[in-house]
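Give me structure tokens for this 670-residue protein.
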Amino acid sequence: MKKMFFAVAMALVSLASSAQDLKANMDPSVKPGDDFWLYAVGGWLKANPLDKQHAENGAFTDLEELNNDRIKELIMKYAEKQMPQGTDGQKIGALYRLYMDSVSRNKMGYEPIKPYLKQVREVKTREELLKLMCDFDAKGFNTAPFGIGLSLNPFNSSEYMIGGGHGGASLPQEYYANPNEQQKKTVEAKKALFKDFFKMVGYSEKEAQKKMEAEWAIEHAIGIKTLNQVESRNPMATIHIMPWQQLLNDFKGIDWEGYRDALGMPKDIDQVNISQLEPLHEVEKIMANTSLDDLKSYVELQIIRSYSGFLSDAFEDRAFEAQKAISGVQEQQPRWKRAVATISGSLGETIGKLYVQEYFPESSKQRVVRLVKDLQQAFEDRLNENTWMSDSTKAKALEKLHAMHINVGYPDKWEDMEKFVDIRENENLVENFIRITQEARAAMFRKYWHQPVDKTRMVCTPQTVNAFYHPLFNSINFPAAILQPPFFDVNADYASNYGAIGVVMGHEMTHGFDDQGCQFDKDGNLKNWWTADDKTNYDQRTKVIADWFSEQEAVPGLKVNGQKTLGENVSDNGGLKIAYRAYENRMKQEPLSNIEGFTPAQRFYLAYARVWACNSTPEYTAMLVNSDVHSPARIRVMAALPMIDTWYDAFGIKQGDKMFIPKEKRALVW
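Here you go.
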């Protein structure tokens, strides 16, 4: 789940507001029932204006920046000395030095990709180009508008299988089919970028324009055939399992065996799950009917785009100009931060091991696990009290809740997937990342192919600033990097911590029961466990949330899509109610007093709002609405809380207040 974090911190600098700082964050001139966002965090918003390096600030940005500083410290231990080839320190240090060597990179310009572009330009036949697409795709150039890779069987998630589908479209379907104003601006920014990329590798203005239009025509033809963002949220709409031989017969226009062999995949593939059929058939048509020159344009651009961040500054600077137009950010991140992000992403477990040794002790892990268990108990309480669900479905829901695997901080078992990564400092970044890409794929098949699925496996690196629910594993995952303030503050009482950390715990659990998660059983298999009446009742209740959020205007003239964001909004609704129940359970044993005139219940909701306090550019907010399944931060406060009965009680919200919703119109799901 994007930007939903909780944290435990011992001996960490707090980024959060303690109870004593509540008033500084607030704007008491605003009535809580009229605009709770401004009431709770209006002071914070004024005191923390947006800087030039970010399109959005707030707690999440603070954690990212803290993370950057920490990982840089870890990297610099190896970046300033030579270490034996093949050691973790050598890999980290060499990759950092290569990235930071702007003199060499600028001198090379686009030379690292020049041999690959030359091969494309010298192609004489369609067959030769189609083979090159596969060969270059294996190197990470993303040149094939189709692909297959290791996946899980959604109907038997204890089994690995091959998944596949189309590529070629870099944006959601709506950007191609019926774009609104922000989406049109994004398309124009990308097309301008692509044109300039062609010019930067030697083409004239006229040639670059023609090649960009050729590439975009291919991208548009595929993109317009894909499922839109609402349709693609239906798991059954993206599952088409077939025998390998049927794939070869039904999609003859693609050389699947050639692709398989180019990527070094096993030859004993017996079945495959294709995500979407129609756009893949469109790919077949394009590869058969598009002119050779236009197909070359497509392949060339993918080569440039894939590794443009490893070429000269001119390429990164031009890409940032496009990002400015799309998100409204004004200033590029410094090179060292880009280096940190690159190394942390490509040597994720190697960095992760160092990260948890330094910043996340075992004691923290055990404390968080206990907190999650408390939230599970609160969820169980609410399920037992559920009045709209039959006993048989309720029993299945309880089974699923207790079957959830909890991953906290770092994995119980390290995967050791990066031990054969080879970083050679006498070669450029592109060649090194080709090897990283190839080794990552080979390591995955070595470790997992024909092996039982380990459902306890953590789906992210410890330094990831995020939290996740995995439906096929039925697991909730909280990496070490987010287990720190402001989501858990050792200086605040448990009322505030339940409002922040507790809501996130409940949110991730509720993802197992949102409109997507509820279709998977306790073992992570796509299997119905509902009675027909219960599912109808559930859909009616979630429709209340979808309809309500569809009324919310994020920026002038642009409203949230309640169906697209339903899973996140249902999970916020459930998370708030479950966390509040956990708070109530604890209050019975350890009563709290008022602080600075605020009741414990009020501190719970003020802490929730503080989690979402942020300033953002209008462009960024519009981009979020147009391309993300999450509602913007302000709406996650302003639209979520009016659905919560205990929020009304805590602040005395009454009819006539602007945020008031009659009780009979409030959503009751979990």
